[in-house]
Amino acid sequence: MTEHPARRLLLVHAHPDDESINNGATMARYAAEGAQVTLVTCTLGERGEVIPPELAHLSGAALGQWRLGELRAAMRALGVTDFRLLGGAGRYGDSGMMGLPDNDDPHCFWQADLDEAAGHLVRVILEIRPQVLVTYDDNGGYGHPDHIQAHRVALRAAELAAGAGWEIPRICFNRVPRPVAEAAFARLEGDLPGLPFDKSAAVDDVPGVVGEERVAIEIDGTAYAAAKAAAMRAHATQIEVAEPYFALSNALAQPLFTTEYYEVVHGERTEGRAHDLFAGIEATA
Ligand SMILES: [Zn+2]
To answer: Record's family (predicted)?
Structure first.
């Protein structure tokens, strides 16, 4: 039997860059602490809009390969060595934004057969036997088809794996407490004149914003803020970073959160807010 670290974390994301934006500090922390951190990314994000003019020529498969290189660099910055593409690189194509004809491409992730896609992830789950799975809520955080599909595939795979020998004890969704987001955007308004961005996004542009009471786990990533920012910078086609802010291709400034928050949607949550994804879970080989 393969030797596993005692604590094992699996994260399922839609595109290269989502992991660093949502969970960069968390991934860096657990990698530094010797936990197994496994990232499964579902597509190469080859329909993403490219920010730097000098890379604007990249599109389709060439952009996907470029973003795979960005993902490798981001994982180096976070100290994460186990990252995989669902079904292998290029198995599922980026579906583009909701409502576009791209969504109908038979190769795209949105059109994937749920059980087939989940099957690839079940094999990873049975190999790693993670105690914690992190993914998006059922709206994918903000409605992107690949994020919604990543949610569906992650939960379906967890269900199938439970029937095949490994029930993941805790499943979490990425969250930001509304008061935290509101305070950060209030600061951003004051800081905006000094930033390389002309306008700011709004609280409701941030994926996964919910009331405080739904947030069960808070990971203070202050010690890993530099690693998270470096990982986000590695995704240069998608993200422009000006700490403690960043912008996507819409050029709207938003806060770069180094404390990351989670809702527990499967398994026990601890009494009060925990500061460890594995809190209350017995580590097993
Ligand atoms: Zn994404």
So the answer is: Belongs to the MshB deacetylase family.
